Amino acid sequence: MKKIFTLLFLSTILFTSCEGDQGLPGPQGPPGLDGEIGKTFEFTTSFNQANDFADRFFFNENIFDSDVVLVYRLEAVDNGLDVWEPLPTGSIFFFNDTTGAIEGFLYYRFNFTVGDVDIILESDAPELAGPEFTDNQTFRIVAIPSEFAESTDINLLNFNEVQSALNLEF
Q1: What's the whole-model pTM score?
Q2: Hey, CA dihedral for 90, 85, 106, 95, is it positive or negative?
Q3: pLDDT category of residue 46 using cuts at 50, 70 and 90
C-alpha cells in the first residue's frame, strides 16, 4: 500500500504541468509592418517628349530593400470594374500603316528603388501613339514583402488576386 501511495505521489508530480509567470511576454516574432502586409499606391501621369516618355512616382515612405514592387496599368473599365494590366508583361501594342504593315510598337515597363518607381513608355515610334496610350494613364503600384511574392500561389499578374490575398484597401 505504501508503494501505491508513493507511485501516485510521484506520478502526480511528474504529470502535473507547471505554469510560469503570466506577466512576462512570450518570445518576439520577426519585425513586421505593424500588421500591414503590403501597400498600394495610385499614380496618374501623361507621357510626352517633355518628360522623355517616362515619369517617376515617389513613395511617401521608403519601402524595405527586400520588398518587391508590382505595377499595373488601368487598361479599361468594364461594367464599372477597373481592369488592371500587369507591367511589363502586359500587352505590346503595334501600329500599322494603311497597308497593314507594322510601323512601330509600344509597351510600358518600370523599375524601382526603395524610394521611387519609374514608369517608362517604350516605343520605336512614339509619335504614332495616340492619346489613349499617352495621356492620363493610371497605374497601381503595390509593394509587398519578397517572402510573400516567393511563397504564394497567388497569380501576381492579376491585381485583383493580389489585392484580395493581401487585404489591400484602396
Answers
A1: 0.67
A2: positive
A3: very high
